[in-house]
Amino acid sequence: MSAANERQRVRELARQVAQIAAGRANEEIKQRWRDVNALRKPDRAPVWCRPVGAWPELLPEESLVCTEPWLRSVERRLRRILIKHDIGDDSPVESSFAVAAAFDVDPPNVWGVDVARRRPADAGGAWAYDPPLRSEADFERLRLPRYTYNRARTDEALARAGELLGDILPPRLTCGPPLSATLCTAAAELRGLTQMMMDMADEPALVHRLMAHLRDGTLRAMEQVAETGLLTPNNVGPMTCSDPLHEPDGGRVTYKSLWCMANSQEFDQVSPAMWEELCLSYQMPIIERFGRAGYGCCEDLTHKIDAVLSIPNLRIFVCSAWTDLDKVIERCGTDYVIMWRQKAGDVVFPDDTDTIRRDLEEGLRRLRGCRYQIVLRELQTLCGHPDRLHLWTRLAKELAAEAG
């Protein structure tokens, strides 16, 4: 395919996306998220899935037609939007093309040491940590990152998107926090998860040292990005689509206008007291900077509910498939949004799809009267069931509507 034909291909995809964005159904989807995240009663609970590792089954690389790398990335991005639209979940679609502000990082590896992983011989196998902090002496190599706005690179990206798509999906500059508030993921990458667990018992001072460094570096990086005046609200996508969180201060957007999503997956098997001391206490100064927060992912928070609810700006409690839903409902009531996460394996593996319906019906019966989202994430495969996300989405929407 010629370069001109590749451009036309991408522009046609953009037109399809723009048509969806302008539709009434898309506005209803956005309102559904806004209502639930404002603790208002939506017409039904929003339903959303994230394919993650299953994308190659939904959109094989060989199905992409563009060969020029940037056009290929845009094609992939637009086709993913169209695939999600076909699946039919509550994915909000924007009428613009987001372009992230570009920043240079010093050191380029962020924390001053190179993070590596030992990869499996077979594609799709499990990787292992290969951490750079192998001894206490290695901690001396850690650095605090500096983020510097690269105007030239940003302007180039905006101009390129505008030249290709400006009359269909106008480019929109986006700028958010440079580093995650979760911290413990970076800590495990740097120290190794097994060694970090050993440190908590044998050398807790090392864990404190590492988590304090990550906290301080994250807060400093947040300030450096905020000082550019480029921050943009992030209340437009799934899970955190919401009413505006905060009026700009003196015309400048601050982190009070943004959502923060954090979790403690690497601390899943750690006691509540140790998790609070070595993880949550370091995350809290970061999370508190934001307008609203959601907490949790795939970890079991059953015995940590009260501490999560101590986050002052918490709005979304993420209830994984391993967290006791009844205990979350008891403590959250209608004061918080419960993100009810589905177990991916229970959706994609069974041949008897009646179990999917029964699981949804049972959970929705218990959630009656609450404010909640129904979310299926962390899929690594569709296990030979290419229509499984369509089925799950249809059932979840149908049953959510019946549940009111």
Verbal overview:
The radius of gyration is 22 Å and the shape is globular. It is α/β, with parallel strands linked by helices and 404 residues long. The termini are far apart. Helices cover 44% and strands 12% of the residues. 36% of the residues are buried. The strands form four sheets. It has a six-stranded parallel sheet with strand order 1-12-11-10-9-8, with helices on both faces. The model has no long low-confidence stretch (mean pLDDT 96).
Question: Looking at the structure, what is the overall shape?
Answer: globular
Count of DSSP H/I helices:
14
How widely separated are the two ends?
49 Å
What is the averaged pLDDT score?
Answer: 96
User: Biggest β-sheet, characterized?
Assistant: 6 strands, parallel
What portion of the residues fall into strands of 2 or more residues? 5-15%
Fraction of residues in helix:
40-55%
Strand order of the largest sheet: 1-12-11-10-9-8
Computed Rg: 22 Å
Low-confidence stretches: none
Structural class: alpha/beta
Q: How many strands in all?
A: 12
Instruction: List the secondary-structure elements in sequence, H or E.
Output: HHEHHEEEEEHEHHHEHEHEHEHHEH
Secondary-structure blueprint:
Elements lengths: L2 H19 L2 H14 L9 E3 L5 H4 L10 H19 L9 E4 L2 E4 L9 E3 L9 E3 L15 E4 L1 H15 L5 E4 L9 H8 L1 H10 L1 H23 L32 E4 L9 H16 L4 E4 L9 H5 L4 E6 L5 H8 L4 E5 L2 H5 L5 H14 L3 E6 L11 H16 L1
Parallel strand pairs: 1-12, 2-7, 8-9, 9-10, 10-11, 11-12
Antiparallel strand pairs: 3-6, 4-5
Helix pairs in contact: 1-4, 6-7, 7-8, 8-9, 13-14
